[in-house]
Specification:
This protein is α+β, with helices and mostly antiparallel strands and about 425 residues long. The protein is built from 9 helices and 14 strands.
Length: about 425
Amino acid sequence: MSVPTPVASRRVPFPVVDEVTRHCLSEEEPETVHIEAHLPGVPDPARLTAAFTEALRRHPRVLMRETPGPWYRRRYEWELTHGPDVDVVTFPPPGPDALADARARALTHAPPLTASPPIRVEVTRADEESGAVLVLTVNHTALDGPACLRVLATAAELYGGQDNAPATPPPQRAPAGPPSPGRRVPSPWVPPARVARGAPGPRPGNGLLVADLPLPRRPAGAPYTVNDQLMAATALMITHWNGEHGARPRPVRVTMPVDDRSRDADMPIGNGTRLVEVTFDPSELDADAVPLLLHRTAVRTRALKALDRPQLGHGAALLTAPLTPVAWRRALTRGLRKAAGPWTSTTLLSNIGRVPYPLDFGDAGRAHAVWFSAPARMPRGLTVTTASTAGRLHLALRWSGSLLGAGDGDRLLGLFEHYLHATQEATP
């Protein structure tokens, strides 16, 4: 494994995504990415801590903290550090609730931006006989899920001594397809559907439900991908849910992160995904016409992936231009975010795809399940995150506690499974 060249500059201005996220932080709904890797065995604490510490040094863009400054400064800046300020890896006592407690902390307590690095790892066990679950919590202002997964793969290689090079090739942009057959995509100026309110819990914050599902099958020669099946199932799930709750039919708009970065040791670390939006007219979301829906979804996702555009669009680049103090830009960004609430996409589907690394921790074994979850702040209020490992689909539904409750999550999961199965029965 090659070791990246040490960073010369000790300070790095916030990129566009980092700044926009920083402006919109909320204590009630922290912007965290949650990752958990399930191992059959138990790693040695000292060796695992040493492996993670060295992995951070090999990806120095992770070792950073926000630089304090006056309100009139023109930029937020990251200060790169030589080592961690805090103990990154901790080992809570084993117990039947250890994993649930770590998941809850991942949703409610973001690693602070003032201490390097903005990531923590909790090694949990149900009892003395069970394997370990590594629960990683990432402050999304600084890093995204794929970047943190790259750091985890480096730690696995350093711990186990086995090559953890990507087992799959880097993502490639597919060529844009022809226009969607027989249907105009709804205008982006039309406010999309909102997820209908369920039975919110007593506390704000995010709720989470994870599921281990069979990887969806595709007929031989199908023109669509597993990602397209997940996209169609997500749109149909929300349409069905909203219909049950008496919501007026509106276009469903699904935000989809696109990641073009390499997966090797030189992968750029940070927030590196582009966000595109896939829109469906209500008339397209017909559970009796799934094959046509899959075809249209495939055409649209191919075209969107082929687009060359800034991560958050051209407007965000203008909004973060260092022409005025960051305090003024923060107030403007928060105001615009609130005003644009009705036009925010219905939901977000983040499909990590097949986990590209073996995640082989030597004597602790290879990860046999990996879950991710993305923040679910209002007004979107619901995110769907998927990854696949060992031929299984690992799904996480995450929602805002001000919109949905635990029982709502169960119902949405049932609907998702139903419509995902329907995509397997479709013929191209």
